[in-house]
Structures are given as structure tokens and as C-alpha cells.
Amino acid sequence: MARRLLVIWFPRLASDTSLRSRPLGGPVALTRRQGNTDVLHCLNLDAETAGLSRGMGLADARAILPDLATRPADPVQEARAQEALRRWAGRYAPQVAADGPDGLVADITGVAHLFGGEDALRDDLHDRMARAGIAVQTAIAPTRSGGHALTRHGGGIVLDGQVSEQLGTLPVTALNIPPDVAGGLNRLGLTRIADLLRVPRAPLVRRFGPDVMKALDKMLGSLPEPVAAPPDPPHFGVRISLPEPIGLTADVMAGLDLLLTRLCHKLAATHMGARRIRLELGRVDGSTARLEIGLARAMRDPARIAPLFHKGIDDTHAGFGIDMLRLVATVTEPLLPAQIVPGQNRGGDEMSDLLSRLGNRLGFDHVLRCLPADSLVPERSFRVVPAAYHDAQPFPYRPRPARPALIFPPEPVRQTRGHPPTRFHWRNMRFSTLRAQGPERITPEWWQDDPAWRSGIRDYWRIETSEGPRLWLFHTPNAPGWYAQGRFP
Amino acid sequence: MPPASQLQRPQPDGRLGPSRRVIVKILPDPAIGPGAPFLLAPARVHEAEGEGRRTFALFQTLQHAGPLFWVLSQHQASRPMPRGLPPGVAERLHIVEARSETDLLWATEEALRSPVPGLVIAEPAKPLSLTAGRRLQLAAEAGQTTGLLLIHAGQGSNAAETRWKCDLVAGPSDSTRHRWNLNKNKKGTSGFWTLHWDGTTAACHMVSETGE
Predict the structure, then answer these.
(1) Residues A158, A224: one domain?
(2) How far is A464 from chain B (nearest CA, A)?
(3) CATH for B21-211?
């Protein structure tokens, strides 16, 4: 069957989407920053008829049209709109790909009769786009380049086998070649595509490089040019609508079990595991309750995920009843299938279950683990990180210099006598020194702005008191004072 | 006072050792374990109070293999410092911060109920009710996990298996002395020991009272 491609071009995609969300009358232009000047990025119809064009400087445009309204261009929003249109165009063809920043190409081979023919299909598309307020130009052709060229020159339908006849009248600028090459061809008197077909190929290739002939061959179909539609990323969401509203925890949990089974099948099919899962409970009155849980590691086991939702569902107010459940895995990670050996230790699973349970109630940033860090400053000699997101690392064993087993923010030591102090008050208790080891001088890290270290260098002493406690005191010579920061066993 | 036979072992020739100061090194016997009199009964919840209760907890971390969970209040300033912990403990340690006392008890119960942790250490700030203590015991039995609650003096629960009063004692220059009193023991006798433990090894050295 002959290949039929539908090429869609949105001449004013950026301004149309911007005006769709925030309508505005009169001439409107989107501007973008280019070097030191603002230039026009996209114009609406009023501005175009007033004589403005794309790429024109904003100052020039204002001189021509003083009441021009402008907005900054948003490339992210534009790309999002194109992607939305690409998904929408899936109604016409199974394979739709982006064609440049403001176009689409769809493979409609064998599809057109479902819409009553190619003319009817184009009319349908133009009607829908006109209702949406987005300017559009379409062409149906056997080749992608041919369709692309025709959309820029009025659109239409190219019948199979008549490409060179129907497209031969187009100017050479319609080919996908740089403007200076097209200018060179014009200077030779080759203004139409049909002119190129009559001259010998070899001298043209020698003069303009192989790209001209390649572009021509692609348009005529002697060089293939695939649609190459990207595969849709898998969507990890499932929903269920209930004929009658429910309100009991057990009923919601039963519905959740159904959804979880389906979601976990989806995850298993793509070898993924969920890290965060959101449950949306739609009430009869249209309001929605959202519950979100986190998992200590990627998993797709319904029996282990369901209990984590129990408390949240129990606390949720059902209102007049819940008639819609939606479950989305918002964060996923690759998870390869693992061989389960009977009798094998499942300690890893139980550990992650425990971390998930603790993390979902207390917050994952309150279930912590320590990692080694490379610093001599006691507070920064280790990092405290969420246990769910970091694996344990071995700490190098360094017996010296001695460090306390417990550390706390520096607390001032008062009524000190001597250096190191022979007597001092700390936490409203009186201590006398039995033995003192030190000093160990630690200098602040100048590249870190730590308020606690503004007092400068510290001389650390290990003080054994005759009352029992063995303390880690330090003295700050720059701002004289004694502080306690740790306790030895 | 522990019985004299415990501290002063007969020498091979039959006479007693020097009476002034006897140090009995507890050998790492696999049947008894390196920390013999201070081993906590497994699958039970124990309590420790006094100034040296955290040192006692550190000593216990060396007697238990597997992951360690230390449940404490979010506002608690005093935290374990990995560089100062006994070797091999920092890698296994998980610190759980609780926003409230209820959360703290809940997290302790959850950790005890799981079979994964080797030891669960918790620092409740308020007196433990009998109900709370009993719940923790049941959770420890369900998960076959040992728990150690570091309580303020006199704030324990009657459900505790053992209760220790731990104090730091000043000693000679080569010794870091501790006095650990076993005040309550559901399945045995009480007693008190003075010992030397430097915070790095699983074994400790007994020090006789007469040596003071």
C-alpha cells in the first residue's frame, strides 16, 4: 500500500497557546532575548497583517505599531503544547512524531477511509483546531519532505505517484536546504523544484554539496525518511469508579488491593518498582482526598505496600461516600526481577519494610544513618542522611585522636579556674578536674561559613573529673571561653 | 557486693589471689559471651538509668549483632558521634527522630516488633506507664528483638526485665571506670559491679571494690 503521511504545521503555535490561556485583543507578539536585544518570537494574525514579521527587533516593531502588546516567550510551555497536540493527534494515526518545533507528522497509511477520505480527514482536523483557536496548515503526501514543503506553501493533498508534477511548481526554498544554498540556486536560474529535475546532478553536487540532491531525493521518495514516532513512556496510574459510594475503611482497602494488583502488574511488565505512591479518593461531592506514601526502596509487592496506606485511609473523612479511587506511582525506579530461593534470608525486605513504616509516620528525613565525611571539624566528620536513600558505608577505624561517643552543641562552662580548668560549673553541676589530656587544636574551615565556628580556633581537652564524667571541653583563645561539646564513655 | 568467689578466684595452687586489687578478665567464651554478667536476656526490654546509661547502651551494642536502632526525641541535643563509637557500630546504627513521646514509643514498638534489629535503644523523656512497658515487652517477644530503654532516674516501668543503674567513676590514669548496679532482675539476682571498659572492645575487666 502506498505510504500516506499527514504533515501538520502550526504557524503561530507559541502565540496561539499563550493567547488560549490568557486571551487578549489586538496585535500581540511574544518576544525573546537575543544577545542584547529583544526580538519578535511569534505574532498573532493582527500583528502579522500590520506588517510585522518574526525575528524583527522589538524597537522596530514598536515604531511600526505603537500599541503592540508583548509577552515574553516561554519555550517550555511551547514544547509542552506541542507534546499535548502530538498526543491529541493520536486520534488520526497510531504513529505521530514531532516535526520541528512547531509541527507534527502522522503516518495515516490505510487510515483515511475511517474519516471518510483524506479530504474529510483534513476538514475534520481544521474544524477542531479552529474551535480550539490554533492556526493550522496541513498537507497529505507520500513523503515527509513533500508534505513539509506543501504545508509552508498553502497545504493540500499530493496524490501518489504525482509528487514531481504537483510539487515541481514550488520554489527551491521549499526544500530542506540552507537559505544561502537556495540563494545560490536562484542565481543560477534554478528557481523551481522542477528546474532541478532537468539539470544534470553531478555539477550541482560538485558546486553545492550532496545535501541539495539528498533533500530532493527525500521529497521525491527515492531516499527514505521515516516518521520515527517516539514510544510513549509507560504511565503508572490506575483508577476505578464505583457504581455506589463506599465509606468503610475495609471497603476502601479492598478497592485499594484491586488497584495495587493492577499497578504492580504494570510495574512488573516494565521492570520498574515504585518509590512513592499517591492514592486519590474522589468523594461524591467532587472533592478529592489525597494520600501519599513513600517506600524505603523500589518495590512492587501489593501485600507489602497496602498496610502502609491503612492509617491514612483510617484518618480520611469519607464525607458522603467515595466513588472513585485513583492510584499513581509518582516516583519509580528500575527494579529487575529477582530469583526467590525458598528458605533464603529475606532480611533486606524486612529492613526496608521497617524503614518504610517508620518513614511514613515520622517522615523519611527522620530515619537517619551516618556516613563518613572528610573533615577534621567534629560536627562535620560525619554526614547524617536519610536511611531510605543511602546505603551504609564503612567508617575507617581511627583510634587516635580520641573522639567522644556522644556529641552535642557547645555548652558554655562557667566559673572556670586555671588552664585547663581545675574546677568548673557545667549544667548547674560542679566538677573538679582529676586529669586533663590536650590540647588538640582544630582550626575552622575557612571555606565554610559556620556560625558556630566564628569564635575561631579551638583547643580541645579531654577532662576526667573526680565526679565521674569524662568530658570533651574546648577553649577558644580568640574569644576566651570554655565550652563542653561531648562525653566519653 | 557480689559474692567474694566471683571477684577473687582461687589461684591454681589453691590460695586466694591478692586481696588488694583483683582484675578478672572475662574471656570471650562463646557459650557465655564476652560481656558475661551484663548480657541482656534476649527478646525482652530492659531499662538503664543514671549518668552512664548511654555508655551502658554502647557496651550493649557490641554484644548484639545486626542493625541497631536508636530512637530519640527530635529535640535531643546529645547524639552519638560515629568517630567516637566502638568499631563497627557506626555502620549498623540507625537514628530515628520522634516528634513526640507517642511517636517515640510507637517507633520503638515498631522496631521491636520487626525481627531485623539486633538491639533497639530508646530514650523516653517521660515516665513509662505499665501499659507502655507491657506493650514494648509484647512487641519484643513478637519480633524476638532485645530492647534497652534509657530512662531518667525513677521513671521506669514495672514491666522491665532488668533495670540497671549506671554511673561513671573516676579511676586511675589507665582505667575508665564504671559502676553498674543491677537493681531489678525478674529472673535472677541483683548485684553490682565496678569495671573497666575503655569503650572500644566487646570485653570488659572487673575491678574489685577493695582496690579503690
Answers:
(1) yes
(2) 7
(3) 3.40.50.300
Which of A355, A362, A404 minimises the CB distance to B81?
Answer: A404
Interchain pair A397, B197: CB under 8 A: no
Look up the domain containing A301 and give its range: 237-334
Are A142 and A200 in a shared domain? Answer: yes
Question: What is the mean predicted confidence (pLDDT) over B58-85?
Answer: 92
Residue B91: closest CA among A397, A198, A63, A31: A397
Please say whether the dihedral angle defined by the alpha carbons of residues B15, B20, B23 and B24, taken in this order, is positive or negative. Answer: positive
Tens of pLDDT, residues A123-155: 999 999 999 999 999 999 999 999 999 999 988
For residue A408, give the nearest of B77, B90, B95 by CB distance.
Answer: B77
CATH of the domain at A53: 3.30.70.270
Query: How many whole angstroms separate alpha carbon A21 and alpha carbon A71?
Result: 13
How many CB pairs below 8 A link A and B?
131
Q: Average pLDDT across each block of 10 residues of chain A; the chain has 489 residues. List them in order.
A: 90 92 90 92 90 90 91 92 93 91 92 93 95 93 92 90 87 89 90 89 90 90 86 89 93 94 94 93 93 88 91 91 94 85 68 90 92 89 90 85 91 88 91 90 89 89 91 92 92
A482 membership: H or E segment, kind and range: strand A482-487
Using the beta-carbon criterion (under 8 Å), do B81 and A406 form an inter-chain contact?
yes
CA distance A381 to chain B (A): 7
Q: Where are the domains of chain B?
A: 21-211
Cβ–Cβ of A361/B107 closer than 8 Å? yes
Domain total in chain A: 3
Chain B residues touching residue A442 (CB < 8 angstroms): none
Nearest neighbour of A395 by CB, restricted to B82, B117, B173? B82
Q: Is A272 found in the same domain as A196? A: no
A11 inside domain: yes
Written as nine digits, the cell of B19 is: 586481696
Give me the residue from A387, A435, A489 closest to B173, CB to CB.
A435
A244 & A164 share domain: no
Prediction ipTM score: 0.81
The C-alpha atoms of residue B199 and residue B52 are separated, in whole angstroms, by 12
Beta carbons of B80 and A406 less than 8 Å apart:
yes
- Do residue A370 and residue B54 have CB atoms under 8 angstroms apart? no
Determine contact, residues A185/A211, Cβ cutoff 8 Å: no
Calculate ∠ Cα A374-A372-A364, nearest 5°.
130
CA-nearest residue of chain A to B113? A354
Contact assignment for B93 to A486 by CB distance below 8 Å:
no
A349: cell is: 525486605
Q: Scanning every residue of chain B, which has its alpha carbon at the shortest distance from the alpha carbon of A357?
A: B110
Which residue from B minimizes the CA distance to A410? B77
Q: Which residue of B has its CA nearest to A391?
A: B91
Strand order in the sheet with A322-334: A237-246, A322-334, A272-283, A288-299
In this structure, what DSSP letter does residue A97 have?
E
Provide, as residue numbers in chain B, all residues whose Cβ is less than 8 Å from the Cβ of A369.
93-95
Which chain A residue has the Cα nearest residue B199?
A: A489
Query: Are residues A397 and A257 both part of a single domain?
Result: no
The reported pLDDT for the residue numbered B210 is 55
Give the closest of A351, A395, A408 to B78, CB-based. A408
User: Where does A35-131 show beta strands of DSSP type E?
Assistant: 37-43, 69-72, 96-98, 103-107
Phi, psi (degrees; rounded to nearest 5) at A324 = -145, 130
Q: Reading across the β-sheet that carries A137-141, which strands appear in turn?
A: A96-98, A103-107, A5-9, A137-141, A156-157
